[in-house]
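Supplementary Note 3. Input sequence used for the single-chain structure prediction.
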Amino acid sequence: MRRAIPFAISLTVGAACLYAAPAAASFSSCIANLKSAAINAGISRSVASQALDRVQYDEDVIRRSKRQPEFKTPIWDYLGFLVDEQRIEDGQAVMRQYDSVLRAAEQRFGVNRYVIAAVWGVESNYGQQTGKHYLPQSLATLVCEGGRRTKFWRGELIAALTLVDRGDLQLNELYGSWAGAFGQTQFIPSTYKRLAVDFDGDGRRDLVRSIADALGSTANYLKRAGWQPGASWMIEVKAPRGYKGPTGRKNRASLSTWAKRGVVRADGAQLSGGANAGLLLPAGSNGPGFLVFKNFDAIYAYNQAESYALAISHLADRLAGYPALRTPWPTDDPPLSRAERKRLQELLLAHGYDIGEVDGKIGPITRAAIKEAEKRFGMQPTGRAGGKIYRALGG
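The predicted structure, written as discrete structure tokens, is reproduced below.
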């Protein structure tokens, strides 16, 4: 589980601000105190020393923790990136490969295997992108920087070292996000310590290299978050145009009540039954709507953002063979898939914009180039990687 992402997703890396590192003596003193705290918490002196003696202040971590959202993307861009055809095809392939593991996790914990696989896909692209930050350095930097979350970061650092000290992991496996989430399905250390399971039976809880442990632990997390076996998590619906009635994940009513309010299934079929659900309209009443159930709340608990839970839920549906969203997003500038984002960068390079490496990641340099290209084509300069500029450049 990792930090929350709101509906308005920040895709920036704040490069405009520089963060001053603390004095060397001050940072060294902080590291010494952290080492003592770890030893006092029961971690061996050897592990504490190996983990912390050579860490350095990491400005990139501080930059990422303090950046302000400079670029907002609507929900359709977020889902377009996370639930594209490539992720669906890759997900169906790994589900065939790990079918027995996923079915065993489903049987033991009662959590739908398509949802387990969807979490894996969104969190690390099925283990392909687990993060490159060395956790002891990142977490020590956050502690020594100070601030309102110092106690939290210290606890996560000690939890990470505890995992090493008791043999679940090696220090060289503690690589993940700047904020401490790591492994196949991106658990933070305290959650790893509390809820990880040894699902492959080798005596270790290894969510980095053991896919079985990672998938089983994810299922265990969702079960503990209140997952109801055999129940639905989300259905796509359509609200009446201009709908002004109740909305919200927690503002639940029965399906029959939603039917009385004019809400229908996305395919036009009528709703019926007593199951309770909340209505989400992330793009307003003119876009896709979603009735979400208690199992959606369990997914939400993994990252505490409705946009994230929608991505997991929709990817799970697509992995299970359900169609793409039936209602189009209310935009004339459609989102780009990951493959199209890479192609957009190639087109920018071909048109003379120096954006560096083509990696599909829309950072500040790519956005600046998009703005210049938009001006060139007489478009409003937004810096957004959308369908209009993609087509204008020849995509």
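Residues 24-40 form the longest helix (17 residues). The chain is about 45% helix and 10% strand.
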